[in-house]
C-alpha cells in the first residue's frame, strides 16, 4: 500500500475551512512515536488511551509495523499524509487527531506546524508528542547486531574474515582503548569502546557459521551474565562483602572452584606484554599466600621482573607506569627537536 498525498481539510473531516469569530475549538494533534527496537504492539497505556480516544488516526506509511496490531485492537487507521495546514483544519470543532509517526519521524509535518504556530495567523490546536514505546538501555546493541549481519553477508572483505585474521585488530583496538583512557580523551574513549565492541560482535557473528560448534552473540552475552551473577554472591546471593578486598576474595574463590585449577599460574596468558605478565604472576602468588622468591640472574630481564613485582605489591600497574614515563620521554624528544629546529 502506498502513501496518500495531497489530502485536503474536507477529505479529512468533511468540512471546509472555517475562520473568524465562528471558528470552532482548535482541537488536539498527537504525534505518536514508536521504537523499531521494541516488538510492535507493545505500546504504553497513555498511547493506547490516545489511540482509542482519537477522532481520527493517520499514518503515512502503509507498511508501518504497528498498523496490523492497531487494527487488531479495533482502531481504524487511515493512510494519509496531510500538510500541517490540513491537519490543523481537520482538528476544528475540538477533534483529536493522532498521527502515527513513520520510522524517519515526521519532519515535514512538525516543521510545518512550527511555522504555523509562529505565524500567529491561526488558533493552533494543542500539540503533543507522545512516545508510545521506549528504547531500553542497550537497545542500540540490536542495531549493531543487525548491521553486522548485513556487513558479513554483503561486504567482500568482511565476509571473508576469520577469527585468526581478526585477532591482530582486537589487540590493536584494546591498546587504543587503553591509550584513550590514559590520555583522558572522552570523545576518543567513546569511539574506542565502540571499536572494541565491534570486535566482539564480529567474532560472535563469525562463530555462528561454525559447522561443529556454532554460537551467537546471545550465547556470548548469556555466558558473561551467568558468570557475573555467579561470581557476585554478595550482590545476587546470600554472601556479604563490605570491602573491595572481600569482593576479590569471593571472585578468586568462586573462580578457583569453576576452573578447578591445580596451579595459580593457570589462566595467565604468556603472550601478554612482559611487565603485565610479571605483575600478574606476582599478584597470583601474593593473593595465594605463597612464599616464592624471585629468581635471580644478571640479565636485565630479572631486574625488570623484580621491578614489576615491586610495582604490583605497591598497587602500581607497571605497564601504565612505563607508558606514562615513555610519554614524558616522547614529549622531551619533541621538545629537543623543536629546540633544534629553532636553532637552525
Automatic annotation (TrEMBL):
The keyword Hydrolase applies. It holds the Pfam family MazG. InterPro entries: MazG-like_dom, NTP-PPase_MazG-like_N, NTP_PyrPHydrolase_MazG. SUPFAM superfamilies: all-alpha NTP pyrophosphatases (SSF101386). The keyword Hydrolase applies. Keywords: Hydrolase. This is Nucleoside triphosphate pyrophosphohydrolase. It comes from Streptomyces avermitilis.
Amino acid at each position: 500500500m502506498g502513501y496518500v498525498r495531497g489530502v485536503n481539510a474536507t477529505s479529512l473531516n468533511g468540512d471546509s475551512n472555517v475562520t473568524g469569530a465562528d471558528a470552532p475549538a482548535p482541537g488536539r494533534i498527537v504525534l505518536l512515536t514508536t521504537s523499531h527496537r521494541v516488538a510492535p504492539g507493545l505500546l504504553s497505556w497513555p498511547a493506547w488511551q490516545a489511540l482509542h480516544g482519537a477522532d481520527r488516526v493517520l499514518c503515512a506509511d502503509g507498511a508501518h509495523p504497528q498498523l496490523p496490531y492497531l487494527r487488531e485492537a479495533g482502531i481504524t487507521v487511515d493512510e494519509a499524509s496531510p500538510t500541517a495546514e490540513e491537519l490543523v483544519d481537520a482538528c476544528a470543532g475540538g477533534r483529536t487527531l493522532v498521527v502515527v509517526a513513520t520510522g524517519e519521524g515526521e519532519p515535514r509535518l512538525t516543521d510545518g506546524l512550527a511555522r504555523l504556530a509562529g505565524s500567529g495567523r491561526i488558533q493552533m490546536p494543542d500539540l503533543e508528542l507522545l512516545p508510545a514505546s521506549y528504547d531500553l538501555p542497550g537497545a542500540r546493541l540490536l542495531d549493531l547486531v543487525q548491521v553486522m549481519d548485513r556487513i558479513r553477508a554483503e561486504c567482500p572483505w568482511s565476509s571473508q574474515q576469520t577469527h585468526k585474521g581478526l585477532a591482530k585488530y582486537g589487540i590493536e583496538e584494546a591498546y587504543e582503548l587503553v591509550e584513550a583512557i590514559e590520555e583522558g580523551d572522552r570523545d576518543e574513549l567513546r569511539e574506542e569502546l565502540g571499536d572494541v565492541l565491534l570486535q566482539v560482535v564480529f567474532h560472535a557473528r563469525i562463530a555462528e557459521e561454525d559447522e561443529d560448534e556454532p554460537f551467537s552473540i546471545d550465547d556470548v552475552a548469556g555466558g558473561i551474565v551467568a558468570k557475573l551473577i555467579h561470581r557476585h554472591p554478595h550482590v545476587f546471593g546470600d554472601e556479604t562483602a563490605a570491602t573491595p578486598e572481600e569482593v576479590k576474595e569471593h571472585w578468586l574463590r568462586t573462580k578457583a572452584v569453576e576452573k578447578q585449577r591445580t596451579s595459580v599460574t593457570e589462566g595467565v596468558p604468556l603472550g601478554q606484554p612482559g611487565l603485565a605478565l610479571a605483575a600478574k604472576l606476582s599478584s597470583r602468588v601474593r593473593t595465594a599466600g605463597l612464599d616464592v622468591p624471585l629468581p635471580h640472574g644478571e640479565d636485565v630481564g630479572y631486574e625488570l621482573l623484580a621491578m614489576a613485582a615491586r610495582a604490583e605489591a605497591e598497587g602500581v600497574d607497571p605497564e601504565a607506569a612505563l607508558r606514562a614515563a615513555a610519554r614524558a620521554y616522547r614529549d622531551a624528544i619533541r621538545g629537543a627537536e623543536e629546540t633544534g629546529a629553532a636553532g637552525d
